[in-house]
Amino acid sequence: MKAAPINLGIVADEIDRDFERAVRVGVSLGLRRYEVRFLKSGRAPLCDRAELLAAEHLAREEGLEITALSPGLFKQVSDEEGFRREMRELYPLAVEWARRWNLPGLIAFGFRKPGATEQNGHVLSSDNPPQQVIDWLTEAGEQARADGLELLIEPELVCWADSGRATAALLRRARSSALKVNYDAGNIAWLEQRDPIDEFDELAPLIANVHVKDLRPKPDGARPEFLPVGEGIIDYRAHFHAMQCIGYKGPISLEPHMDGSEATIRRCRDAFERLWSA
Question: How does pLDDT run across 129-140, given as a tens digit for each residue?
Answer without folding.
Answer: 999 999 999 999
